[in-house]
Amino acid sequence: MGQFEQMLYMAIAYLLFVQSYPQKDNSIRFIAFGDGGGLPHPPYTTNVQKATANEMGRVAQESGADFVLNVGDNFYYRGVNNVNDLRFKETFENVFTAPSIVNIPWYILAGNHDHLGNVSAQIAYSRISKRWNFPDLYYELSFKIPNIDVSATILMIDTVVICGNTDKDNQPKGPKKYHLAQKQLQWIQEKLARSRSDYLIVAGHYPVWSIGKHGPTPCLVKHLKPLLEKYNVTAYISGHDHSLQFIRKDDGTGYIVTGSGTFIDKSTAHIKKIPTSWLQFYNAKISALGGFTLIEMSPVHLVVSYRQPYGMVVFQTILPRRKLTSNEN
Ligand SMILES: *[C@@H]1O[C@H](CO)[C@@H](O)[C@H](O)[C@H]1NC(C)=O
Ligand SMILES: *[C@@H]1O[C@H](CO)[C@@H](O)[C@H](O)[C@H]1NC(C)=O
Question: What is the set of domains in the chain, with CATH numbers?
Fold first, then answer.
């Protein structure tokens, strides 16, 4: 190859690189994953959790991830006992070790297994670990894409408070405290109604839609889905079913299930619960050793990229910026 061709190839390679990894200043990216709670006995982790954690480190490094969103079931099978529980070290600190995910914030919420233990201790751990951010059972995150006027809001919610805990593998049995469920739903409604953000994301543990072993959560289909639709929520991110899924009806909210942080369950038991056309992606290959999503919010759109060890991009899709009607401005 002549020198000129070589330079041309390098220029093209560079342009392709720049295109797939837009200037960091112009977007926000984060890793979202769930059900990364390891095991309650030695080695306190699984091969799936280790491989997923390593791939998260690699992808965070390569893409310059700004933060990690953890959608619950942080410690199997009964959460933690107190803030000094060795599980914080054995299942979390010792597993997610790459500098690219050690040195960025993690935003945490609780899943059904966490609620079987001491969730206050998980909240209190925020004072001990620099990366662990779990200020309350539910809270709001706001971001501005640097240098341009594009904003994003993420509501971290507690679906166990809203719907109750599960008994074995059944559906949640209804909230333990009805008034706390109502109070949180009210908070969600008010936050969504007021949001002018270009990207509006809600994250919780239980899925709204899923074709996996647990399937859709009727309580959320009834109480949360209408709010997500009414306020044009860009995406709802959840775990609980141990697979990767992308479900979307036409141009509505994108439903992301990313629950293969420790285990993989290839069940498609609830495939009949949603129209075939809504299911745009499903993956629960045991051999793939887990996975997660990388979400990039750019000035033009949001890209959801489903990742698995080792270096596999198994699905990618785009969600548009919200269109806010002018009379609401
Ligand atoms: C939960 O953890 C906190 C922080 O370690 C502790 O103060 C509290 O006593 C624990 N609650 C129970 C019921 O063990
Ligand atoms: C949601 O999007 C639709 C269609 O783009 C629009 O007509 C509606 O006003 C939007 N609602 C809100 C709350 O932004």
Answer: 28-159+195-328 (3.60.21.10)
